[in-house]
């Protein structure tokens, strides 16, 4: 029996988040420069997006570039930005054809102008697509996002548009970059690392985590299928006991 047929179509996660890790190490094992790993990761993105859309996943967030990644060698960062622009331009037709909406979260103002321009163009071109939201986390940091939300809320309190007694989890969530999306139900990280790495810290509070011992360039549809199958076998209790969940 193939993996896809083992998936319960009634229990598909509404939101899957992925930390695409291991491109550099993959390249090193192949005796190539790190950018070679990033280029070969594009096929993994294609297959993952296609598989998620086919299964009916409503939201797919890919951790493409973190705030901390700016500290990498300048040439690698420059090559990554160029690759990002070229890939978005190349894949725009496919996104439109498959009715997939492209979005981005993070400190987008810190991106190079060419990158912002290409990203804005793709977001605008796909804004009416409804099959799935493909959310790129770019120049993103969960701590940056949380601090920004705190500042935005503080400004509203200071201006008198908000009373501190009104601040609760729901209001705080509305000030995050992901305000329009449900929290991820499944988070996948490749490369065998067991860290969240400053990714969606607030949103992952009750997310099921899947750590895969495979570098991202080698990730394929079957790996996503297996992660979802494992997710569907878990009991999500949200602080309750089994008897309460099963009642």
Radius of gyration of CA atoms, rounded to a whole number: 19 Å
Shape: globular
The major sheet is characterized as: 6 strands, parallel
Number of individual domains: 1
CATH architecture: 3-Layer(aba) Sandwich
Mean pLDDT score:
94
What oligomeric state is this?
single chain
The CATH superfamily is known as: Decaprenyl diphosphate synthase-like
Terminal residue distance: 32 Å
Structural class: alpha/beta
Biggest β-sheet: strands ordered side by side in the sheet: 3-4-2-1-5-6
Total DSSP helices: 9
| CATH fold category name | Undecaprenyl pyrophosphate synthetase
H and E order: EHHHEHEHEHHEEHH
Q: How much β-strand is present in the residues?
A: 5-15%
Helix content: 40-55%
Number of DSSP strands? 6
Features:
alpha/beta, Undecaprenyl pyrophosphate synthetase, six-stranded parallel sheet, 43% helix, 15% strand
């Amino acid at each position: 029996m193939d993996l896809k047929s083992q998936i319960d179509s009634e229990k598909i996660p509404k939101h899957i988040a992925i930390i695409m890790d291991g491109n550099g190490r993959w390249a090193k094992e192949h005796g190539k420069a790190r950018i070679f790993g990033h280029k070969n990761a594009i096929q993994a993105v294609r297959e993952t997006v296609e598989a998620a859309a086919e299964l009916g996943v409503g939201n797919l967030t890919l951790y493409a570039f973190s705030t901390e990644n700016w500290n990498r060698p300048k040439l690698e960062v420059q090559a990554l930005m160029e690759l990002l622009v070229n890939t978005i331009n190349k894949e725009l037709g496919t996104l439109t054809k498959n009715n997939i909406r492209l979005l981005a979260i993070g400190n987008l103002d810190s991106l190079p102008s060419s990158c912002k321009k290409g990203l804005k163009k793709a977001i605008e071109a796909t804004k009416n697509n409804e099959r799935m939201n493909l959310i790129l986390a770019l120049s993103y940091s969960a701590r940056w996002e949380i601090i920004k939300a705190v500042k935005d809320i503080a400004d509203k309190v200071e201006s008198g548009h908000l009373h501190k007694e009104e601040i609760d989890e729901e209001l705080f969530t509305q000030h995050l970059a992901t305000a329009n999306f449900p929290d991820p139900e499944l988070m996948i990280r490749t490369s065998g690392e067991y860290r969240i790495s400053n990714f969606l810290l607030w949103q992952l509070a009750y997310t099921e985590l899947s750590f895969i011992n495979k570098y991202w360039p080698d990730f394929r549809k079957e790996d996503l299928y297996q992660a979802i199958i494992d997710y569907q076998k878990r009991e999500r209790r949200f602080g309750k006991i089994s008897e309460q969940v099963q009642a």
